[in-house]
Amino acid sequence: MIPTAKPKDAADSKIFEIHIVSDNLKNGELLRLSLEKEFQVACKSHHELTPDFWREVEAVGTNLVLFDCSEFDDNRINNSIAGRRPDMDQIFLILFNASQDRDLKQIVINHKIRGIFYKTDSLDRFLKGIREILEGDLWLPRKIISECIDFSMMKGASGNKALRFLSFREKEIMQLISAGASNRKIAEELNISIHTVKTHLYNIYKKIGVPNRLKALIWATTHMHAFIWMAILFLSDVRL
Fold it and tell me: Is the full-model pTM beyond 0.70?
């Protein structure tokens, strides 16, 4: 067993584990070995999640929980995540082996999914995405983000007056988030540290009343149309 450890450039957590939930023993084992080699952390495989699973992983610290979409339909994913409390922000949920034609927006919104990887994604792209997620970013295809925004707007997501309470710097960061920038990219564009970016994001979430980055992105896209395209002009390597 590889001991738990803090991964390179990981989120601000002292202990870190990865959990793979899949019925495919062969694929799960190959993925486990790749993740352990890359991040030098404990990586465990599961067929099902027991009722005590979420309480146990919460005690560890930051955890990635990866669900195999080729084995799990929506109901099974929903049932597996049912025991997770909404405030378990240090447990990052990720879907992998997803089909590009599968409608995942409801699961993404309901369960704060941090990343989606398709069956066609290479191992290098997968590992790069995991590292981005550990740094506090989302790894969601633009198609999924667009669908989440459209869905939220159809549900009547209305504007509020929070925009006036954002500082100039916070508005700059929201512009860059809307354009698809990672925390690292934001830090580079604004010449500030990643830690400062995270501090600004924490304050932004409180001011606009959202719990996570995806909700902030949806809020910004809904209420900051005039600013978004300005930010996109400055970004040349946003994720497709």
Answer: no
Q: Is 118 contained in some domain?
A: yes
Residue 6 is predicted with a pLDDT of 38
Task: Judge whether 59 lies within some domain.
Answer: yes
- Predicted local confidence at residue 69, as pLDDT: 92
Q: How many CB atoms lie within 10 A of CB 47?
A: 11
Apex CA 179: angle with CA 91 and CA 157, to 5°? 70
Calculate ∠ Cα 178-91-81, nearest 5°: 100
Residues 128 and 192 in one domain: no
Entry field: residues in the chain: 240
Give how far Cα 84 sits from Cα of 50, 87, 93, Å.
11, 8, 10
**Dihedral angle computed from the Cα positions of residues 105, 131, 66 and 108, in that order, rounded to the nearest 10 degrees:** -10
118, exposed or middle or buried, with CB in 10 Å at 0-12, 13-18, 19+?
middle
Q: Within the chain, which residues score under 70 in pLDDT?
A: 1-15, 149, 151-163, 224-240
**Tally of domains in the chain:** 2
Q: For 24, left (φ over 0), alpha (ψ -120 to 50), or beta?
A: beta
Q: Given the structure tokens 């400062």, which residue do they identify?
A: 196
**Domain contains 156:** yes
Does residue 129 share a domain with residue 60?
Answer: yes
Task: Report pLDDT digits (tens) over 131-169.
Answer: 988 888 889 887 887 777 676 655 544 445 666 788 888
